[in-house]
Amino acid sequence: MGLLLQHFLLKCLLFLILPYFLTQCVSSVQRPCLDSERSALLQLKESFILNRSASSYSKADSWKLDGWIGGDCCSWDGVECDDNTGHVIGLDLRSSFLYGSIDSNSTIFQLHHLRRLNLFDNDFNGSEIPSVIGNLSRLSQLDLSYSAFSGQIPNTLANLTELTYLSLSENDFSPSTLSWLGKLSKLTILGVASTNSYGDVLPSLKNLTRLTSLRLSRNQFSSQILFWLGNFTRLTRLDLGVNKFWGLVPESIFTLIKLEFLSLWSNLLNGTYKLKSFLNLRNLKQLQLSGNNFSLLTTTTVMNVTVPKFTILTLASCNLFEFPNFLSGQDELEFLDLSRNKIHGYIPKWIWGLSAQTLGVLHLKENFLTGFRQPAVVPPWTNLRRLDLGSNRLRGNLPILPASIYYYFVSNNFLQGEIPSMICTLSSIIVLDISNNSFSGMIPPCLGNLRT
Fold first, then answer.
1. Which of 346, 345, 348, 357 is nearest to 327 (CA)?
2. Where does the record place the Leucine-rich repeat-containing N-terminal plant-type domain (predicted)?
3. Fewest C-beta in 10 Å: which of 88, 384, 392, 424?
4. 368 DSSP β-pair partners
């Protein structure tokens, strides 16, 4: 009797839970792509030439009807589908060697459910971005950078109000204004570097306070840098370089404590600032201030603060009168530019061991440097590729560098003595410029064997 009861109860339990498991099994199977969207993708592939070498791989190579994945476009490389509906929601064709034009009839605009579209690093042969892109209203991520687009940037992009990521950088657009950007209030990443854009763009960005990365560099933007940038407290990257921004650097920039990258390079900014104010941004890894009309003040108090560990630091044309003393503790620098300043006297001894394992580029040209405080040995740099000491007042013998050097400039100085034959050990040298000095003696015959 007990066994019969147990058997009955087991059947009842199976009756209750089996539909649940069947439902879960069915729901866990991804629906195949829709015929219409598969056809759109195949037509999209056919509209381009895959401009690559025989050994290069394009994601579109997997877009075909034969093979083990057959006609299920949801299994194709670079294609993402919604598990429940089968609609294509993501298209990632970055660096896929696509060559050809995109127009308003492109089947890419038939994929109305797209949320993510990445066409980075292709060649669309100078075609314009069709205005119908504004109909892809579900897009949250759009990357059209480095893809040889031209023409006007369509203001219909303002319709894509769900965008959190937008990159249009490095295309040859016609001069455009971007006042419509302010409508994209959900943006966290915005890149419009090198897009031939102009005008006073900053007011349109005032409400984009979710931004973590803002790249406006290499354009013709012209305005003051407005104080409310300090409201962008999530910023880790702020790139305003190579524009026509003018006036003072607002104090509010020094409150953006999450910044890891800050570039004000090559603008029309003026004023006088304490270098310490920038060093208080403790998370900075890259700081580019070269090529403005302002002055930086270095003080001994810089030694008493915890400063960032920089990888890139450019302070050219900043009216410096001395080597910033915090540099002696930097051991991760890859690029340092102190050129076109007013630094007088000797190059300090610590320069020659600065970031010994990482430094690749060191620019000290166009100062008033007179000599070297260094040991009479080859400096310990293992990755130095470029050193520029040109147009100073250097005296003494020609310093010899590690064999890793590619570009060595020390012209327009007062260096003396013979050109040492040891210079011929620079086996990787590409450019060697030691002209306009006061060398004497014979030119080492081995110089003719260098790869210059």
1. 348
2. 35-82
3. 424
4. 344
What's the confidence (pLDDT) of residue 167? Answer: 98
Antiparallel, parallel or unpaired: β 335-337 and 293-297: unpaired
CB atoms within 10 A of CB 396: 13
The phi, psi pair for 283, rounded to 5°, reads: -90, 0
pLDDT of the residue at 55:
73
More confident residue, 401 or 278: 278
pLDDT higher than threshold 70 for residue 20:
no
Could you tell me where the DSSP H helices lie in 29-126? Answer: 35-46
Chain centre distance of CA 171: 15
2: part of which helix (H) or strand (E)? Answer: helix 2-28
The predicted-structure confidence for 311-341, as pLDDT tens digits, reads as follows 999 999 999 999 999 999 999 999 999 999 9
**Cα–chain-centroid distance for residue 384?**
22
239-258 burial, b for 16+ CB within 10 Å, e for fewer?
bbbbbebeeebeeebbebee
Whether this model's pTM surpasses 0.85: yes
Residue 101: strand, helix, or coil: coil
Q: Supply 112's token pair.
A: 């109305």
- The span from the CA of 326 to the CA of 315, in Å, is 13
What distance in Å separates the CA atoms of residue 344 and residue 369, rounded to the nearest whole number? 5
Q: Which pair of structure tokens corresponds to residue 342? A: 């007013």
C-alpha to C-alpha distance for 202 and 186, rounded to whole angstroms: 16
Q: Report how many helices (DSSP H) and strands (DSSP E) the chain contains, helices first.
A: 3, 30
